[in-house]
Amino acid sequence: MVLLNHLDKSLVKILGLSDYEIKAYLKLVEKGPLRPKTLSFEANIPYTKIYSVVIRLEKKGLVKVDRSRRPHTVVAVPPVEAYIKLKSMVEEKLEDLEKKVKLLQELYESSHRGFAQREFITIIRGLKPINERAVNILVGASSSVRVAIPFQKFLSEDLKKNLIEESVKKLIKILATKKLEPLFRDLPARIEVKYLDKMFGGGVISEKEVLLVV
């Protein structure tokens, strides 16, 4: 299909589509409904990979599979509908990226504030010392604290207890992975908690100190 030759590969990557996925979708647009074996031949995709390609396209909402009889038939959704779905996927990725960039910016601003007066950087090893340091920063903050929690072990009982107690006196914002959501359901509403699918690391940020957990 001529259109395939004009697709910017970098754009395809941004959309989260593989070469095989875009080949399969375009061939279905061109030829109409096809069985997997025929689609494999027409789109020049190895037969051993065609089913996984179809499953991924179906999950992304770009094709529909008629399983009422065998062999199954694969149908492309209309291009306009596919565009809307892809646009939504990109917007979700950008929103996720924006949250991560904001966290990085906060880390940057905190670590570069008064750069000339910074005295030292300490490397802390071991989960217990890290948790203790996190609590110390939380308790020592004067007005606000931001906490990023990427995994369950970082949220010690002591840290959680102090988060609740200190939230009475200062602004506390938490960023955590979605799988940890049940652990935060009993926090008071005054603590703001946001969730990400994945996190690159964690830490605690106050006006005075920054703790990075990697």
What does this protein structure show overall?
- By secondary structure, the protein is of the alpha/beta class.
- It folds into two domains: 2-77, Arc Repressor Mutant, subunit A; 93-213, Endonuclease, Chain A (2-Layer Sandwich).
- The chain has helices spanning 2-6, 9-14, 19-31, 36-42, 47-59, 79-112, 127-140, 157-166, and strands at residues 63-66, 73-76, 144-149, 171-177, 192-196, 202-205, 210-213.
- It has a five-stranded mixed beta sheet with strand order 5-4-3-6-7, with helices on both faces.
- Strand 3, helix 8 and strand 4 form a beta-alpha-beta unit.
- The two termini are 46 Å apart.
- Residues 1-6 have low confidence and may be disordered.
Q: Which helices and strands appear, and what pairs or packs with what?
A:
Elements lengths: L1 H5 L2 H6 L4 H13 L4 H7 L4 H13 L3 E4 L6 E4 L2 H34 L14 H14 L3 E6 L7 H10 L4 E7 L14 E5 L5 E4 L4 E4 L1
Parallel strand pairs: 3-4, 4-5
Antiparallel strand pairs: 1-2, 3-6, 6-7
Summarize the structure.
The protein has 214 residues and is of the alpha/beta class.
- The percentage of residues in β strands lies in 15-25%
Q: If helices are DSSP runs of H or I spanning 4 or more residues, what is the number of helices? A: 8
Number of strands: 7
Q: Report the helical percentage.
A: 40-55%
CATH class of the largest domain: Alpha Beta
Rg, nearest Å: 24 Å
Please provide the ordered H/E string of secondary-structure elements. Answer: HHHHHEEHHEHEEEE
Largest sheet, spatial ordering of strands: 5-4-3-6-7
Straight-line distance between termini: 46 Å
Low-confidence stretches: 1-6
- Let me know the average pLDDT: 82
Question: What would you call the shape?
Answer: elongated
Total separate domains: 2
